[in-house]
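Exercise 7b. C-alpha cells:
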C-alpha cells in the first residue's frame, strides 16, 4: 500500500512539473512574439536597434528556457533516472558520471590550469583571466592521453 502511495505521489509531482513546463513554454512564446514585434518596429522606424530593449527580451527568453531545463531535470529524477550534470566546457546536460561530453568531447574530470601562471581557468576561457596568456585547447584524445600519463 505504501509503495502505491509513493508511486501516486511521484506521478502527481511529475504531472505538476509538466504543467509548469507547459505554462513556461507559453510564456516563452509570448516573450519571443514581443521580441519579434520590438525588432520589427525598430526596423520600420529605422531607429537604432534598441540593443538594450532587445537584450532584455532575449534574457527573459533565456531565463525561461533555464527554468524549463531545471523542471525537466526534476522530472527525470522523479522518474528514477540518475541526475545529469552540466559540461563545464559547452554547458550541455550530460549523464551523471560521464567521463567525456558527447557534444564537445571535454574530459569531465579535467581541471585546467594556465600554462603561463598555473592558476585555475575555465574550459571556455580563450585567455587566462589572471595573466592574459592565450589558452590552448586540448582535444578529447589528448586530454585522455594526459590523464593516462598522470
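Sequence design result:
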Amino acid at each position: 500500500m505504501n509503495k502505491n502511495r509513493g508511486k501516486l505521489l511521484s506521478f502527481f509531482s511529475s504531472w505538476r512539473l509538466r504543467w509548469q513546463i507547459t505554462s513556461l513554454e507559453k510564456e516563452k512564446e509570448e516573450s519571443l512574439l514581443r521580441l519579434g514585434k520590438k525588432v520589427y518596429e525598430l526596423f520600420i522606424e529605422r531607429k537604432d536597434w534598441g540593443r538594450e530593449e532587445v537584450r532584455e527580451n532575449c534574457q527573459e527568453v533565456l531565463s525561461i528556457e533555464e527554468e524549463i531545463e531545471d523542471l525537466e531535470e526534476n522530472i527525470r529524477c522523479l522518474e528514477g533516472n540518475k541526475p545529469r550534470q552540466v559540461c563545464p566546457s559547452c554547458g550541455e546536460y550530460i549523464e551523471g558520471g560521464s567521463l567525456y561530453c558527447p557534444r564537445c568531447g571535454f574530459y569531465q574530470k579535467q581541471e585546467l590550469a594556465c600554462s603561463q601562471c598555473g592558476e585555475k581557468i575555465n574550459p571556455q576561457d580563450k585567455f587566462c583571466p589572471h595573466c592574459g596568456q592565450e589558452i590552448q585547447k586540448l582535444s578529447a584524445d589528448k586530454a585522455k592521453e594526459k590523464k593516462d600519463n598522470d
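Instructor comment: Strands lie at 84-86, 93-95, 112-113, 120-121. The helical segments are 2-44, 51-78, 140-149.
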